[in-house]
Every structure is written in structure tokens, then in C-alpha cells.
Specification:
The protein has about 140 residues and is mostly beta strands. The protein has one domain (about 10-140). The chain has strands spanning about 10, 20-25, 35-40, 45, 60, 70-85, 100-105, 110, 120-125, 135-140. Strands 1, 2, 3, 4, 5, 6, 7, 8, 9 and 10 form a 10-stranded antiparallel beta sheet that branches. Strand 9 (about 120-125) and strand 10 (about 135-140) form a beta hairpin. The two termini are about 20 Å apart. The relative contact order is 0.27.
Length: about 140
């Protein structure tokens, strides 16, 4: 299993179908694109596939700059998102179309293979807004 590059920006593709999300306070700092779960207080915290107790992912944080607890964040469970690193490069550029993306054993990170607990988050699909198409994540967290 390899972690994908850290996500610095999430672009919600609102015009591409259904989206399910919830806005809640963060329980701690939470990076953009971080697989997230709810703590005992109902706040969003980084999830990890390293153990069953931290692998109950609700969705992915789509909010920029959640650098402390109690800042409202948007956790997306279903929908299409484009993921970019700090330099603006697409995080999914080296992941083949159709491949699953998983929660990593590293808290708050995405991976190209299952961790200790298998937590699939969605598939990489092509967005034909340009040629060649851009890879985006079709989130479908179960």
C-alpha cells in the first residue's frame, strides 16, 4: 500500500450528479481530502485504516484550512471531487482510471491499496473537460 500525495485542495464537482455531505465542527486540525470519521462528540476527525476503531469513515473533508478544533468542515460521502497537491498537481494523476482509492493506515491520508482494515472510498473516473481527461474521485463511501 502506498499513500497518495497529501491533498492541499479539494474541488467539488457539483454539476456532476448527486452529492451527500454533512457540515460539522472538526474535533482537531483536519487536512483537505482527509478521510474523516466522527468522534464521540460528533465532531469530524481524521480516520485511519490501521484498526477497526479508527476505520469508520463517513467521507472526505472538502474544506480548506481546518487548522484547529471547532472550525466547521464539510465532509462529503458521495459525489465527484478533484484532488490537488500544494503545487496544484492532480493527486490522482498516477492512479489508473477505474482503480479504487482507499483510506490509508496513516490517519487522514488516501492510499492506492487497502490498509489493515479495507476501507474503499471510491473509484478514479475520467472527467472529460479537457483532452486528455482529468482523473477525479467518484466518492461512494459505504
Amino acid at each position: 500500500m502506498a499513500d497518495l500525495a497529501p491533498v492541499a485542495r479539494v474541488n467539488l464537482l457539483e454539476h456532476l450528479g448527486e452529492r451527500t455531505e454533512v457540515s460539522v465542527p472538526a474535533g482537531a486540525a483536519l487536512a483537505p481530502g482527509a478521510p474523516s470519521r466522527f468522534d464521540d462528540d460528533g465532531k469530524a476527525v481524521a480516520a485511519s485504516a490501521a484498526a477497526a476503531g479508527t476505520a469508520d469513515v463517513y467521507g472526505v473533508n472538502a474544506t480548506r484550512g481546518v487548522n484547529q478544533a471547532n472550525i466547521t468542515c464539510q465532509i462529503v460521502r458521495r459525489g465527484k471531487v478533484a484532488l490537488y497537491d500544494a503545487d496544484g498537481a492532480n493527486v490522482l494523476a498516477d492512479v489508473p482510471f477505474g482503480a479504487l482509492v482507499y483510506a490509508s493506515n496513516t490517519a487522514g491520508r488516501l492510499a492506492d491499496a487497502a490498509g489493515t482494515v479495507t476501507v474503499p472510498l471510491g473509484r478514479v473516473v475520467p472527467l472529460w473537460s479537457s483532452n486528455p481527461p482529468e482523473p477525479v474521485l467518484d466518492l461512494d463511501v459505504r
